[in-house]
Sequence to fold (128 residues):
Amino acid sequence: MTVAAPPITRLANFINGKWSDSHAAEWRDVVNPATGEVLASVPLADAAEVNSAVEAAATAFPEWRRTPPEDRIQPLFKLKMLLEEHNDDIARIITMENGKTFTEAKAEMRRAIENVKVACGIPMLIQG
Fold:
């Protein structure tokens, strides 16, 4: 049995559809408020990394803009399915990161899923 603390996970940036390690000079710890345990470290991205993300989004936007609403909602349906499938896991993460009770975190997940359901219905609303 070991009592050594697990290594701190350094999170990556998600830019242009892929994960990339950050070159940030500063990192911020994500701390479990109940225990003080460091869960991970997140990069405080510099201007170059932020600009890279903004440029990737600006490049992708024209094609996305031409995508019909019925096709645009497909990622939202996938998100809804993933939120439902991993509901308890995400609620546990919310509890660890925010100090909420598990019951509060589950309620937050229910609200999140409801918001995604509403967004999935918008194409029907705009058709009248």
Remarks:
- The chain is about 60% helix and 15% strand.
- The longest strand covers residues 38-43.
